[in-house]
Amino acid sequence: GIQFVFLPSSEPDHTDGRYGGPQSREGAREFAAELAIFVLLLRAEFPWLKLVSPPLVALGTPGVFDEECGEVFKLHDLIGEHSYWQGPDNHLSPDWGLRVKQRQLFYPNHRFVIAEIGDASNQGVVESMWTSAMLRYQRIMQVLSVLASLDYVDAACIFIGRGSTAEWRGFWPDDAAIKMLGGEVMTWDRH
Question: To which H or E segment does residue 4 belong?
Answer without folding.
Answer: none
